[in-house]
Design a protein that fits this description.
The chain is built from 40 helices and 41 strands. It has 1178 residues and is of the alpha+beta class. One of its GO terms (cellular component) is plasma membrane. One of its GO terms (biological process) is phospholipid translocation. Belongs to the cation transport ATPase (P-type) (TC 3.A.3) family. Type IV subfamily.
């Protein structure tokens, strides 16, 4: 039967009405509000009308989008303007554009017009070439995609047609293993039952086969032989890939259509010879294309902080220009009577007979022009090359992270993925890790362990593995693909007749395991001649697969599923059950049910779900002892870390069935309000149940998870686990993963109202403060220290969070949570996960990381509800799956390549195969990236500032005339060629500590928490050092050549070479790991500068012709270079030595241990590290 999404109505309303509904993270009101949608039939004005096999009439009223797609951003004509527009979103580029424009004015022309444009043109050109290449690849991909061929019904026969020419309303035929060219409603298939198997790996990453069904009324129609007429009235295009609502009118019948009847573009047809359908959404209106936008762009915390220092440098630039203009004004005022005859500033030209006036604009304008000219001269104070350098460094860092074999998962053959290049350095400053449990901490390999049936626990006996073959109806011998541990006592009961005591309940329970699911049984084809064929259960949920295999192991083998019935081989006897209705999971009910017409002519409702939802619909007046026993068994299973489900049954009489059937048909054929109606129908039939029992499934921890969590805790990172599992299950997993320890004091909050939540939080705060005082820790020490001495674990459930999130209680929860070492949230919904991340992210300056595999929670797995999420990006896109909202809310999102698909990977910034890889990612690569990037930013500020200050001192010395001794070409090439490459190479390759040391001493990660690589103190110390070095560079040649006749161009070349040598040696002093590449770029840059200066001075048309050849042949020139380097760097070397000797940081101590001790000694060395203090609140 059709599976419907209770949220589709809201999604449609948002798309059609352009209205935005506020969504609350913590409240279930978001779910309940959706059930109050209008029950009115959708009107023609609000629906898409598709006429079967009549594309002309379908497009007559509204011309729908064609099937041609375009993922490229530019065309040949739009590339230049659009690319430049995108690039000039960076304010720094606009700044340099203004500088270049000012330099074109005759009054302000300090440099040559071509030279002033070159730096900006170079940066723009490099980015444009990169963008052009990427867009060319998109064009090529689009061309290949649009020209693919598909079979389309034309003149009563199928003909090949290019994808781009397909129109809405046309009927298509898709062969096995072909890709669907657009979104089509399934009409018929090669299977008699009308079922089609599709693989959606290209859409959502899930490799399991999904089933789609054709309606019984269209299964037998053959388009080539008979005319197919009809009308589909469907919702407008939207990006909800798991929802579809429509009606189809065929031969006077009105049929409901849902997600199980639509085949989406990009999916592949599998295990089905052919499928025929009608196109309803084409091209950019397909769900795949509507979901093609990437994750919201995130910005590095370090880059955001860098902008503040950039503003300071801008103010410093304004200060320098103001000083020059004010001093020039004073100088002009004092010498106003001498301006006609003063050298370098004559207002009159006496060269040609009668005196002629130079262009002199008056005292006021001259001051303004002087200020603007100063901006042009000192423009490189703002490092334009820093932006492109950061991009190149991030690309290099990403390359080495991807190639790191410690991040390679052999089991899935997957490498580390760096999907966002903007936040590499943020990996070195993570303070909070928010993790999902299932598929992230665990393997997501579900194994059936035991069961409680009618109050009897079948878990204590000896278990054996079993997957015995069973004789199928068609003569094939089928064997379940997976082995299952079975209990001998339960196995014996399952083989007994119903007359044996307890056997009837066992029969019903195992029948519920086999029937209450959406599993599709497939016979695995092989080339062997063996009569035994493997039976593979395909399903979207590993839980359902495990339960189906368990039922098969006990003799209840599901062998066939169609849209109308299922076949179960019960102890060798094939029995057919009519599937009269199926109510799938939703987040409000937290259960699913199937209505079966049994062979004995009875109608039974089988229901399974979470214990909290099931016990509310079970008739507790009956079988009280059985219910209590089952509850006790559930408690035991949960404490063992097992995942549990409760099963119930109810038999419907004829009247009850007719009432349900009428209500179900009415709800299924509604478009608007379908979700609310189906929800109401499900609630009506899922009540007064008789309990059958409970199942327990084990999801084992991934390899290395306990060690990884311990390393993260030692590194000062707080780990929070957010899971939808029961509290007892979550606590058990917490202990086995070392998230919880015996030394921790656990605070548990389970509240059912806002008032009780407030009391629980207040009491918990009092308790945590008492523990802090007991430990002798003062409040001035910080919460992190208190937690480290007397650790506290907070355990809170989703019901409590309903009343806490989005209310004034958030502050209490935040205050309590930050005092705890561990926070464990149970029974939380996807939006609650995002709300918890936002709770921390919006109140602290600490960096947050969320990691998950994107699997769907048990309560919504089958229909994958889509939630509208607030503040998840600029466009507020709809996001799906369990962990996606949490991943996108955090500063850094990491996706696990889970068995449930790639939803989290596609929405993440980084992706990897195992949770344990988080340790080398953060402690090694994160540390390296942060240290490199922090140093590179400071170095770029220093490198440009020292050059500008040399120019500034010369302007002061030459009476503020803004003449420059350094050639205009050297000024422009300084940041691009002379000094750019070394900082990029060091930013990619330098390693302050080895991988072994960083992994052995996780405390070294605290350097990122303390912002040791980049902070205000380091910035100002760097600027003071820069000031001294610029004085040394300027003054030593000045005094050395004071009495000589050397011209300005010669001393300018000396200053150029001195600055380049100085900044490269400055960089060399700070390099921790030398390689041949580092040597090549450091010394090569110095040699390249000598060559460039020589070439520039050898060109006759440039000023300073042959200057370097005159000055470089004297010994004084080389002595000046040596003196400048020594005078500039010795003070820095002395200060650095004293600081590292008397007040070394953790990293310096570890580096010393690495350098002067053998590996064996190092393994036995203990390094005492600084405490990691908590960061202040926002």
């Amino acid at each position: 039967m059709d599976s419907q999404n209770p949220f589709e109505g809201e999604i449609y309303r948002r798309k059609g009405g352009n209205s935005v509904r506020e969504v609350r993270h913590g409240s279930r009101g978001g779910d309940i509000e959706l059930l109050g949608l209008s029950h009115k039939e959708i009107g023609d004005d609000d629906a898409r009308l598709v006429y079967l096999n009549d594309p002309v009439k379908s497009n007559e009223r509204y011309e729908f989008a064609g099937n041609s797609i375009r993922t490229s951003k530019y065309s040949v004509f739009s590339f230049l303007p659009r690319n430049l527009f995108r690039q000039f979103h960076r304010v720094a580029y606009i700044y340099f554009l203004i500088i270049a424009v000012l330099n074109q004015l005759p009054q302000l022309a300090v440099f040559g017009r071509g030279a002033s444009i070159m730096p900006l043109a170079f940066v723009l050109s490099v980015t444009a070439v990169k963008d052009a290449y990427e867009d060319w690849r998109r064009h090529r991909s689009d061309r290949v995609e649009n020209n693919r061929l598909a079979w389309v019904l034309v003149d009563d026969e199928f003909q090949q047609k290019k994808w781009k020419d397909i129109q809405v309303g046309e009927i298509l035929k898709i062969q096995a293993n072909e890709t669907f060219p657009c979104d089509i409603v399934l009409l018929s298939t090669s299977e008699p039952t009308g079922v089609a198997f599709v693989q959606t790996v290209n859409l959502d990453g899930e490799s399991n086969l999904k089933t789609r069904y054709a309606k019984q009324e269209t299964i037998s129609k053959i388009p080539e032989e008979e005319m197919i007429n009809g009308l589909i009235k469907c919702e407008r295009p939207n990006r909800n890939i798991y929802g579809f609502q429509a009606n189809m009118e065929v031969e006077g019948k009105r049929l409901s259509l849902g997600p199980s009847n639509i085949l989406l573009r990009g999916c592949e047809l599998k295990n089905t010879a052919w499928a025929i359908g009608v196109a309803v959404y084409c091209g950019r209106e397909t769900k795949a294309m509507l979901n093609s936008s990437g994750a919201p762009s995130k910005r590095s915390h370090l880059e955001t902080r860098m902008n503040f220092e950039t503003i300071i440098l801008s103010m410093f630039l304004i200060l320098l220009c103001s000083i020059v203009s004010i001093c020039a004004a004073v100088w002009l005022r004092h010498r106003k009577d001498e301006l006609d005859i003063l050298p370098f500033y004559r207002r009159k030209d006496f060269a040609h007979g009668a005196p002629q006036n130079y262009n002199y604009y008056g005292w006021g304008l001259e001051i303004i022009f002087t200020f603007l000219m100063s901006v042009i001269v000192f423009q490189i104070m703002i490092p334009i090359s820093l932006y492109i350098s950061m991009e190149l460094v991030r690309v290099g860092q990403a390359y080495f992270m991807i190639r790191d074999m410690l991040l390679y998962d052999e089991e899935s053959n997957s490498r580390f993925q760096c999907r966002s290049l903007n936040i590499n350095e943020d990996l070195g400053q993570i303070k909070y890790v928010f993790s999902d449990k299932t598929g992230t901490l665990t393997e997501n390999k579900m194994e059936f362990q035991c069961a409680s049936i009618w109050g009897v626990d079948y878990s204590g006996g000896r278990t054996i593995s079993r997957n015995d073959p069973v004789q199928a109806v068609d003569g094939k011998i089928l064997q379940p693909k997976m082995e299952v541990k079975v209990d001998p006592q339960l196995l014996e009961l399952s083989r007994s007749g119903k007359d044996v005591k307890g056997a009837k309940h066992v029969h019903d329970f195992l029948l519920a395991l086999a029937a209450c699911n959406t599993i599709v049984p497939l016979v695995v084809d092989d080339t062997s001649d063996s009569p035994v064929k493997l039976l593979d259960y395909q399903g979207e949920s590993p839980d359902e697969q495990a339960l189906a295999y368990a039922a098969a192991a006990y003799g209840f083998m599901l062998t066939e599923r169609t849209s109308g019935h299922i076949a179960i081989n019960i102890q060798g006897e094939r029995q057919r059950f009519n599937v009269l209705g199926l109510h799938e999971f939703d987040s409000d009910r937290k259960r699913m049910s199937v209505i079966l017409g049994c062979p004995d002519k009875t109608v039974k409702v089988f229901v399974k779900g979470a214990d909290t939802s099931m016990f509310s619909v079970i008739d507790r007046s009956l079988n009280t002892n059985i219910i209590h026993a089952t509850e006790a068994h559930l408690q035991t299973y949960s404490s063992m870390g097992l995942r549990t489900l409760v099963f119930g049954i109810r038999e419907l009489n004829n009247l009850e069935f007719e009432q349900w059937h009428l209500a179900f048909e009415a709800a299924s054929t509604a478009i608007i309000g379908r979700a609310a109606l189906l929800h109401k129908v499900a609630n009506n039939v899922e009540n007064s149940l008789t309990i059958l029992g409970a199942s327990a499934i084990e999801d084992k921890l991934q390899q290395g998870v306990p060690e990884a969590i311990e390393s993260l805790r030692t590194a000062g990172i707080k780990a929070w686990v957010l899971t939808g599992d029961k509290q007892e299950t979550a606590i058990s997993i917490g202990y086995s993963s070392k998230l919880l320890t015996s030394k921790m004091t656990s605070i548990i909050i389970n509240s059912n109202s806002k008032q009780s939540s407030r009391r629980s939080l207040e009491d918990a705060l009092v308790t945590s403060k008492k523990l802090t005082i007991t430990s002798g820790i003062t409040h001035n020490t910080g919460a992190s220290d208190a937690a480290a001495v007397n650790p506290v674990a907070l355990i809170i459930d989703g019901t409590s969070l309903v009343h806490i999130l989005d209310s004034e209680l958030e502050e209490l929860l935040f205050e309590l949570a930050t005092k705890c070492s561990v926070v464990l949230c149970c029974r939380v919904a996807p939006l609650q996960k995002a709300g918890i991340v936002a709770l921390v992210k919006n109140r602290t300056r600490d960096m947050t990381l969320a990691i998950g595999d994107g699997d769907f929670p048990t309560s919504v797995r089958s229909i994958a509800l889509c939630f509208p999420e607030p503040n998840f990006g600029e466009h507020k896109e709809l996001r799906c799956a369990n962990d996606v909202s949490m991943i996108q809310m955090a500063d850094v999102g990491v996706g696990i390549s889970g068995r449930e698909g790639q939803q989290a990977v596609m929405a993440s910034d980084f992706a990897m195969g195992q949770f344990r890889f988080l340790v080398p990612l953060l402690l090694v690569h994160g540390h390296w990236n942060y240290q490199r990037m922090g140093y590179m930013i400071l170095y770029n500020f220093y490198r440009n500032a020292v050059f500008v200050l040399v120019l500034f001192w010369y302007v002061i010395f030459t009476s503020f005339t803004l003449t420059t001794a350094i050639t205009e070409w050297s000024s422009m090439l300084y940041s691009i060629i002379y000094t750019a490459l070394p900082t990029i190479v060091v930013g990619i390759l330098d390693k302050d500590l080895s991988r072994r040391t960083l992994l052995k001493y996780p405390q070294l990660y605290g350097a990122g928490h303390r912002q040791e690589a980049y902070n205000s103190k380091l910035f100002w110390l760097t600027m003071i050092d820069t000031l001294w070095q610029s004085v040394a560079v300027f003054s030593i040649p000045l005094f050395a050549y004071w009495a000589s006749s050397i011209d300005g161009s010669s001393i300018g070349d000396l200053w150029t070479l001195a600055v380049v040598i100085l900044v490269n040696l400055h960089l060399a002093m700070d390099i921790s790991r030398w390689s041949w590449i580092t040597h090549a770029v450091i010394w090569g840059s110095i040699i390249a500068t000598f060559i460039c200066v020589t070439i520039i001075d050898a060109v006759p048309i440039f000023s300073g012709y042959w200057a370097i050849f005159h000055v470089a042949k004297t010994e004084l020139f080389w002595l000046c270079l040596l003196a400048i380097v020594l005078a500039a760097l010795i003070p820095r070397y002395v200060v650095k030595f004293l600081y590292q000797y008397y007040s070394p940081c953790d990293i310096q101590i570890a580096r010393e241990a690495e350098k002067f001790r053998s590996p064996r000694e190092l393994r036995n060395t203990k390094i005492e590290t600084n405490p990691i203090l908590g960061s202040p609140h926002r």
